[in-house]
């Protein structure tokens, strides 16, 4: 799932004019990233954002996340991919990041597929965060049906830049989250991640899309060097960086993803 903080709206609206040009990103499959698509479960599919017009008002665009969930977004519709990324499943299977007994934080988790994945991989707790109020009950309903302890795996409503958990987290996961934010928010994103993780904590970033788009975002083009420029000054060190094999990407995202693991200093 993809969410953007309310802080983004206020930050973007300091620009003149208060408008973002929302283009259409066309991956290799030819599917428009910014148009609502329906996908087959459980194979998953290209996640997309709610439809948005060029020159749309930013505040109005942000409201469309809530509108999508409030309208009863179903699994496989629009940006709901029906499952965690195969790249994340592979990373956990290989033990690249040990999550057993750890507390995991997943902002922008949508229906909660990723918190469930982390719990089933042995995490002590897996907490998701969603900005859209209507997304939270949908996520918790899904989680409750997955035979997991819902006191240890759940989703809350909150702003990534303001929400805090006093205990801190051992592992964080960021996918289709940074790329949904306006570029003016990137430094704050890195600082916020540093604040959410405990010293020595690991941040998993599934970097997408790494291919420059012809049109402006979202999703905004991001790449590994940009993440280094953001996270290293914020107090992280890079541990691993890998290109995601085509067979480990959601359909339509082949060749557009990399995984990176960072350690919070």
From TrEMBL:
InterPro entries: SAM-dependent_MTases_sf (IPR029063), TPMT (IPR008854). Keywords: Methyltransferase, Phosphoprotein, S-adenosyl-L-methionine, Transferase. Gene3D superfamilies: Vaccinia Virus protein VP39 (3.40.50.150). It comes from the Eukaryota. GO terms for biological process: methylation. This is Thiol methyltransferase 2. GO terms for molecular function: S-adenosylmethionine-dependent methyltransferase activity.
């Amino acid at each position: 799932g993809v969410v953007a903080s309310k802080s983004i709206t206020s930050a973007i609206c300091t620009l003149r004019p208060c408008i973002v040009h929302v283009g259409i990103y066309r991956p290799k499959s030819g599917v428009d990233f910014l148009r609502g698509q329906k996908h087959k479960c459980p194979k998953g599919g290209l996640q997309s954002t709610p439809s948005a017009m060029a020159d749309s008002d930013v505040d109005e665009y942000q409201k469309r996340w809530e509108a999508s969930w409030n309208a009863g977004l179903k699994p496989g519709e629009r940006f709901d991919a029906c499952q965690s990324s195969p790249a994340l499943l592979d990373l956990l299977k290989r033990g690249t990041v040990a999550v057993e007994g750890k507390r995991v934080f997943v902002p922008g988790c949508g229906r909660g597929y990723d918190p469930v994945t982390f719990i089933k991989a042995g995490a002590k707790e897996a907490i998701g965060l969603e900005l859209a109020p209507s997304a939270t009950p949908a996520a918790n309903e899904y989680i409750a049906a997955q035979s997991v302890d819902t006191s240890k795996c759940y989703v809350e409503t909150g702003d990534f830049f303001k929400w805090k958990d006093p205990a801190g987290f051992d592992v964080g996961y960021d996918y289709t989250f940074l790329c949904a934010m306006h570029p003016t928010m990137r430094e704050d994103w890195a600082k916020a991640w540093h604040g959410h993780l405990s010293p020595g904590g690991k941040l998993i970033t599934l970097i997408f899309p790494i291919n420059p788009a012809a049109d402006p975002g979202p999703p905004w083009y991001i790449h590994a060097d940009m993440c280094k420029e953001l996270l290293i000054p914020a107090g992280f060190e890079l541990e691993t960086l890998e290109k995601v094999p085509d067979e480990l990407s959601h359909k339509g995202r082949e060749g557009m993803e990399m995984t990176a693991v960072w350690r919070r200093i």
